[in-house]
UniProtKB/TrEMBL annotation, chain A:
Coiled coil: none annotated. GO terms for biological process: pyrimidine nucleotide biosynthetic process. Gene3D superfamilies: Nucleotide-binding domain of ferredoxin-NADP reductase (FNR) module (3.40.50.80), Translation factors (2.40.30.10). Binds 1 [2Fe-2S] cluster per subunit. CDD domains: DHOD_e_trans_like1. Keywords: 2Fe-2S, Iron, Iron-sulfur, Metal-binding. SUPFAM superfamilies: Ferredoxin reductase-like, C-terminal NADP-linked domain, Riboflavin synthase domain-like. GO terms for molecular function: 2 iron, 2 sulfur cluster binding; flavin adenine dinucleotide binding; metal ion binding; oxidoreductase activity. This is Ferredoxin-NADP+ reductase subunit alpha. It comes from Desulfosarcina ovata subsp. ovata. Residues 1-96 form the FAD-binding FR-type domain.
TrEMBL record, chain B:
One of its GO terms (molecular function) is iron-sulfur cluster binding. It comes from the Bacteria. It comes from Desulfosarcina ovata subsp. ovata. Residues 147-455 form the FAD/NAD(P)-binding domain. Gene3D superfamilies: Alpha-helical ferredoxin, FAD/NAD(P)-binding domain. This is Glutamate synthase (NADPH), homotetrameric. The lineage of its organism: Bacteria, Pseudomonadati, Thermodesulfobacteriota, Desulfobacteria, Desulfobacterales. PANTHER family: GLUTAMATE SYNTHASE [NADPH] SMALL CHAIN, GLUTAMATE SYNTHASE [NADPH] SMALL CHAIN-RELATED.
Length: 278, 470
């Protein structure tokens, strides 16, 4: 069992942080890599990119939003409980390079994935501006951590309850106008990544995105996580999870993410009913 | 072994009792239900106990077939299973999934004039008997050598190596990337053909012998090969399988409702998605299902789809019946269960609706021309023969390639032009010192028993290396 040593509820309980004992993975993991977690014997294998690792303590941190039955089940796990299986580190690490001015854009729980990448980009000497956003102030996560991990932090909320009133792309546009941005890293909901990639394309600024398609094994075996990048089929688990945002077919990705929406909806509703009854 | 005269009966081969097709096509219980004791002894008595047994030559792991069959005829089932174990650590698996008709049974003398002795059924019987009624007594083990071996991959090849080396006194750790050991035996072969409880039992047998099994270990990612050597392992065997699904590269292939057989079977078998929503992993349940390909994996996929409630299931294959690579028994079982065969048919593109869900497939009729590189007659498209097939679920079972995950992280090991590991066919030695490889990652996709045969040779070579240093 992989024991949970720390648990936090964020964003009004819709987002959960778990720090998990997994010494082998903590020792190996690099920014941008993911793990696959399975709560119990009958559980689903869920891929999540790591928000942090601590090789000394032998722990990894994941932050996830509760969206379906599996994540709702994860949410019931308390400190001292654990995941039956944690597999990783999987996927290619982020390619880190000293480029100069870099902008990291995060939305929703994507901010968690962005955190170790931002920190690493800053550590190797880049001038990192960070733009994070959420629907509303209470749903914003990791603000202080992102501030510490970057040279400059800008916050946006869709409803204007905090920071800039509007989308991350509005603030990004201002930054791009400066003309000296060498790289944009965008991680968040697929529509956000698509919007960012469309914007940076017009400025011809290289853009990395991290994709989270439906996946089972995470080792290249099942082909469920296939995405079209530059007109070619790639497997996000072994070829990614990060890709050139200007090459990704986001519409296809959004469509493929809906593959099990009906099944998942029923499964989640049944689970919630059961939880309420107990 | 005591040579006892057994009745050289000319009786007909005893068929294995099976669930009726109309019942089994909607459940996941095993199809053949196994011999009774009386049936096993009757069938065993048909064996001629040849002095030069062809069946043994046909067995990739050289099981002493007349030996164990003779013991079954005598009613010494414990003796029979111990006899098999000296050559084969997975008899319950082999008795079920080996292509006996082209191996042991294909060389049986009784089969020259009549039907061959049912060697596979007998192997299965005695393995099941030991599991259900046996003493649980383990075969003898050589004294402990203190040498540590890591086996990467817990499929048939890796388990064979583990079984052989533990019996030779070495310390063996099996490392598996999935959360459950068994490799293709648990993710690929369906419950109705190989119950997972049986695989678990075979793995447990190795654990009782002293093999250490670690799951969730993705070698190449969690730990590298060089790190395994640093941890004190003196030899490493790679039996990681092929495991990279091949697609057809046709327009529309990423529509929802098109899955690789690997994904479909992993959902159904390893994740037990046929029990969804009692388990959490979903699986698409098609109404009009099409399986592309005609090997054993295609048959397994088609029969799984039928059991998940499909209205109809079609196998679409570009060559003719003669070239179908699946075992005759699997094709027969599929036909009995109502799977339709569309032969000499090739898909050209997939069609979806506005939600990106698959609704149909365009196909071309084919005819066979001259033989190609594979020795089989080349399928040629018949011009203007396009036709439409309605389908909401396509399972692509056209083979697999070499998974690059481990080999990419091991740059000092030679690969061939297809990405498979270069290994000596006699010993399994790779170009990296202390590393052996066998099974699908060396040969490309093949059978369970060939992977076991490769494991056997490598285990002998590893034993020599650990004992003598060469």
């Amino acid at each position: 069992m992989f024991k949970i040593v720390k648990r936090e509820e964020m964003a009004e309980g819709t987002v959960i942080l778990n720090e998990i004992e997994a010494p082998l993975i903590a020792n190996k993991a690099k920014p941008g890599q993911f793990v696959i977690l399975k709560a119990n014997e009958d559980g689903e294998r869920i891929p999540l990119t790591m928000a942090d690792t601590d090789a000394e303590k032998g722990t990894i941190t994941i932050i996830y939003m509760v969206v379906g039955k599996s994540t709702a089940l994860f949410k019931t796990l308390q400190v001292g409980d654990g995941f039956q299986d944690v597999i990783g580190p999987l996927g290619k690490p982020t390619h880190l390079e000293k480029l100069g001015k870099v902008v990291c854009v995060g939305g929703g729980t994507g901010v968690a994935v962005l955190h170790p990448i931002t920190r690493a980009l800053k550590e190797i000497g880049n001038d990192v501006t960070c733009i994070i956003g959420a629907r509303t102030k209470d749903l914003l996560i990791l603000e202080s951590q992102m501030k510490a991990a970057s040279n400059e932090l800008k916050v946006c909320t869709d409803d204007g309850s905090y920071g800039h009133h509007g989308f991350v792309t509005d603030v990004l546009k201002e930054a791009l106008e400066g003309g000296d941005v060498k790289l944009v890293v965008a991680i968040g909901p697929v529509p956000m990544m698509k919007a960012v990639a469309n914007l940076t394309r017009s400025y011809d600024v290289k853009t990395l995105v991290s994709l989270n398609p439906i996946m089972i094994d995470g080792t290249g075996m099942c082909g469920g996580c296939r995405v079209t990048v530059g007109g070619k089929t790639k497997f996000a688990c072994v070829d990614g999870p990060e890709f050139d945002g200007h090459q990704v077919n986001f519409d296809e990705l959004m469509m493929r993410l809906q593959a099990y929406c009906e099944e998942e909806k029923h499964c989640y509703e049944d689970f919630c009913t059961l939880q309420d009854a107990t | 072994m005591t040579e006892k005269k057994v009745k050289k009966g000319k009786a007909a081969r005893l068929a294995m009792p099976e669930q009726a097709p109309e019942i089994r096509k909607r459940n996941f219980k095993e199809v053949p239900t196994g011999y009774t004791v009386a049936m096993a002894q009757e069938e065993a008595a048909r064996c001629l106990q040849c002095k030069k047994p062809g069946c043994m030559e046909g067995c990739p792991v050289s099981v002493d077939i007349p030996g164990f069959i003779g013991l079954i005829a005598e009613g010494d089932f414990t003796g029979a299973i111990r006899h098999i174990w000296t050559k084969n650590a997975l008899p319950a698996v082999c008795g079920r999934v080996c292509p006996q008709e082209s191996q042991c049974e294909g060389r049986c003398i009784v089969g020259k004039k009549g039907e061959p002795v049912a060697i596979g059924n007998l192997e299965r019987f005695v393995a099941d008997w030991e599991r259900e009624k046996g003493t649980g007594e383990l075969p003898p083990k050589a004294p402990v050598t203190g040498k540590k071996v890591a086996v990467v991959g817990s499929g048939p090849s890796g388990l064979t190596v583990a079984g052989d080396l533990i019996q030779k006194g070495h310390s063996v750790t099996v490392l598996e990337a999935f959360h459950k050991p068994g490799g293709v035996l648990v993710y690929g072969i369906p419950e109705f053909r190989l119950p997972k409880a049986i695989v678990a039992q075979e793995v447990n047998f190795l654990e009782r012998l002293g093999v250490n099994v670690e799951v969730n270990a993705v070698i190449g990612r969690t730990v590298s090969l060089d790190e395994l050597f640093e941890q004190g392992y003196e030899a490493i065997y790679l039996g990681v399988g092929a495991g990279l699904p091949r697609f057809m590269n046709l327009p529309g292939e990423n529509l929802i409702g098109i899955l690789s057989a690997n994904e479909y079977l992993t959902r159904a078998n390893l994740m037990k998605a046929y029990r969804f929503p009692d388990v959490d992993t979903p699986i698409p349940k098609g109404k009009n299902v099409v399986v592309l390909g005609a090997g054993n994996v295609a048959m397994d996929s088609a029969r799984t789809a039928m059991r998940l409630g499909a209205e109809n299931v079609k196998i679409v294959y570009r060559r003719s019946r003669e070239e179908m690579p699946a075992r005759a028994a699997e094709i027969h079982h599929a036909e009995e269960e109502g799977i339709e065969f569309f032969l000499l048919t090739n898909p050209t593109r997939f069609i979806g609706n506005e939600k990106g869900r698959l609704t149909g497939m365009e196909c071309l009729r084919m005819e066979l021309g001259e033989p190609d590189d594979s020795g089989r007659r080349r399928p040629i498209a018949i011009e203007g023969s396009e036709f439409h097939m309605d389908t909401d679920l396509v399972i692509v079972a056209v083979g697999s390639g070499a998974n690059p995950l481990l080999t990419q992280s091991t740059p000092d090991m030679e690969l061939n032009k297809w990405g498979y590991i270069e290994a000596d066919p006699e010993t399994g030695k790779t170009t990296k010192k202390g590393v052996w490889a066998g099974g699908d990652i060396v040969t490309g996709a093949a059978t369970v028993i060939l992977a076991m045969g490769a494991g056997r040779k490598a285990a002998d070579s590893i034993h020599q290396y650990l004992t003598w240093g060469w």
